[in-house]
Fold Zn-dependent hydrolase.
Amino acid sequence: MDSVFSDHRALRPLLLELLNAFGEFGKAEDGGYSRLAASPEEKLARDHLCEWLRAHDFAVLVDPIGNIFGVLDLGEVDTARAFFCGSHLDSQPNGGNYDGCLGVVCACIAALFLKDKIDRDEIKPTFRYYVVVCWTGEEGARFQPSLIGSSVFSGALSLQDAWRLKDSEGVTLKDALAASNYLGADSPPSPDHYLELHIEQGPELEKSGDPVALVEACWGAEKLRVLAKGKAAHTGPTPMDERNNALLAASQLVVYAEEISRRCGETLYSSVGRMELAPNSPNTVVERAELWLEFRSPGEAALSDAVSQFKDCMSAVSGQTGCDLSIVSRESRNITCFDEASISNAECALGASNTGYLKLKTVAGHDAVRLQAICPSTLLFVPSKGGITHSPSEYTADEDVCAGFDAMAVVLASLIARPAGASAFRRST
Amino acid sequence: MDSVFSDHRALRPLLLELLNAFGEFGKAEDGGYSRLAASPEEKLARDHLCEWLRAHDFAVLVDPIGNIFGVLDLGEVDTARAFFCGSHLDSQPNGGNYDGCLGVVCACIAALFLKDKIDRDEIKPTFRYYVVVCWTGEEGARFQPSLIGSSVFSGALSLQDAWRLKDSEGVTLKDALAASNYLGADSPPSPDHYLELHIEQGPELEKSGDPVALVEACWGAEKLRVLAKGKAAHTGPTPMDERNNALLAASQLVVYAEEISRRCGETLYSSVGRMELAPNSPNTVVERAELWLEFRSPGEAALSDAVSQFKDCMSAVSGQTGCDLSIVSRESRNITCFDEASISNAECALGASNTGYLKLKTVAGHDAVRLQAICPSTLLFVPSKGGITHSPSEYTADEDVCAGFDAMAVVLASLIARPAGASAFRRST
């Protein structure tokens, strides 16, 4: 395999330096990172990105949901097409420095690679603009749902609804963006292709030893926010039969959701990652429990069956506990297939450069899933050690980072230099 | 029935005024009260109590755990005995204004009744001091365990351990007391009798129509803080079998605890009122769940069986979920019987004044339970509407408040004028 680093020796240290530079922001003592969406810690990372972009001749634009666009004019005057490349800088609480951040860093360094290639006349881009993008609130940690910035950009979520989202302290996303100075008013060019590199967050690449995976599709997901309303009462004198215990109801639902996924004949993952209780005081029966439940599956039928079974469980639990149970919100994410023509194109390019690769489906949602709704999109994975993510143990070795960037450069060159008509993608109206 | 209000007409408005005055502190919009232990809201209530005590010739003392003692010298020079009467001013989050507060208010107003009776030579007290007491942190809401101030005072909890208790923000009780200016250094007289009036927090008095209950005993309790440690991971790509989901483990424990109490042949209550999760983010498998579990029963064997069964459940759940489960702390509260001689004495006095009464056991712990370990103690209940408590719906009608005070005055007069040797209580050494 030829490495871009043979030709572009300066890139490797720049790539690792930039990644490490972001590793200064939101770092906790135990090695984890907390750069929650629109937080002061994420602002430091965003500011650093903007400085880097301006220092490298990008025009920096920020839209009303806080997405950052670094626009580089490639000088190709016969087109107004824009090639987007990026990911996100927000993290889970106590997560890692690779999830999202690596994709933004690689998008930045790829611009240097690209400019060099163009200057040497080794690439003739078919796009006018190369746009490094950092999407707002991908993680769904501080604000739910996930993929907020790319959802608003792609039209899946309205700006007004997104602005009104509140964190657990009641702060709206709009206010948080304004406080961090990322409530913009700019409009970037429309994307004609989107490329994203991300850590796999699973074990397949580590097993196969390949430097990169081409993601063919994303599993579907059903995300339900469920509210259990009981009655506050003293945990002492209140007779057991007179209690309406919202935590008991919520706990039964957590157990049932797990059983639904275990019993399913198809592959079905489920999880409750967040639960909020009130008053959450040891001597008071829990009055209110809110839980964030998800089902994920590569099969549509398994998902709809799961939701249907879960609703039956809710009725049963409501009957047993006397609590009022309701689904407060439901987000259904369809199974998404990435642009096939781009995948074929990338396969050819990777094959020609002797780069090994896997073809995978992603279980986790990514901004590329949202972008695929409005332009052909390509999602690449690089290995993550042990598949561990959303954890301080998240890790991708420098060698794997560089090998992944190598493969991305190959794919990028093939996509950006490809004739305009080669994509099978048709923009929906 | 004769009412003390016939003889002491000024007392009724004073009683209701003082109760309503406390109702100004920590009031929420929906009618609930939040006066968490050593909070700014509780400080307002405590300051008001101290002002009232000083205005009525009490010497105000504050001990190192923040207990307030209003000491009134009754002028009985042949003894140094002290009669304590009081309750607590802290509340649950969004609780009511009667739980604790009513007992403090009645203790204050009873002093006026007592002085009047002594001035008229209708009572010859066998105690030198009448001490109104407000105990710190009875509720176990902001700081756990409950009954903190009376536990330290009675020797069941060391001052150092109590000072080190932390709220959910990591603030120590010592620092919170210092911040609210209730970290004192005074030593009050030793109590020779303790009397507490409290709302029943159950439905029995409302059913019987009696104004007061004499509490014979307090149920035993086992309070366990249980920690489930799993592993943070992405709720998407992480295969279900590779997850160690601390919330799943915690939820199974909540369900099992309920089953243990339902299956028990004897009366056994159980509850998990508080659960803390980390990182508590929708897309991350819960790494850490901590739960506050309690069992309560009038039978010692039922309690020890319950804890033993629960430990078996912990082993099973740990095996199923791969989570590490441990009991972080355990507080065993024995069944407590209140001083029998005092109850007999009170029965005679109530009967003589034609006051109807019930004899009950209390399920909830009260400061009187702790005091009974060091002096004969008497706990009286007055009705609480629907038995509802720890809720904004907690309510005792003014008529019931006054009828309860009437009964308390009868009991107080009988206890305070009783010859010193009449109690069956022997102080343990």
